[in-house]
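Subgroup meeting minutes
Present: P.N., E.W., G.H.
Scribe: E.W.

1. P.N. recapped why we're keeping a running log of single-chain structure predictions: easier to compare across weeks, and new members can see raw inputs and outputs side by side.
2. G.H. added today's entry (194 aa).
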Amino acid sequence: MRRLVGLGVLIAASATVAACSLLPVLPAPTPSAIATASSTDDISLGLTRYPIGERKAVDGVTGATLDGKQLDITSLRGRIVVINAWASWCDPCQEELPVLVGVANSSDPKSVSFVGLDVNDTVDAANAMVKKFAIPYASIIDKGAHLLAHIPGVPPEAIPSTVVLDRQGRVAARVIGTVKPGMLEPVIAELQAE
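Output recorded in log:
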C-alpha cells in the first residue's frame, strides 16, 4: 500500500513539473467533449475536442506582437486558428516547438493561421527563441497572462497550452501541456471539412 501511495505522489509530482503552469489544476472536460473525442488516446494525450454546440468564442486576444505589429485574433475569423501559449523559460514549450513549426509550415496559410501567445516573458528572450526555432508566425506579448485568461477552457497561466479555433473563432480543441507529433493535423483536417 505504501508503494502505491508513493507511486501516486511521484506520478502527480512528475505531471506538475512537466508543465510550466503556476496553476496545474485542470478543469474536467464536459462529458460531451469526452464523448466526441475521436479516441480515448486523445484524452490521454491532453487533447480535448468540443462539439459545435459547446464551442465558446475567443474574444479580447489582441495586442503587440514580438515584431512590433498589432494583431487581433478576431481579424483571423474565416480561417482555422491555432493559438499556442508559450514562454522562453518553459522547457516543455521548447520541446513542442518543432512540432508546431512543422505543422505551421505544412499548413495552407490561406485557411490556417498560427499565432503564439508569449506569456510572462522578456522580449529579448522570446525573440531569441523565435530565431532559434525559426517560428514562422507572429506571437502576441502577454505580460501577466491577461490575454491567456480570455481563452475559454484554458486554466490561468497554463503553459504550454494550445487551442484550435474553428472558422467562427470558437475553441474546437485544446491541448493542455505539450503538443505531440500527429496531434494537431487530424483536428485541423476535421475543421477544414466542416
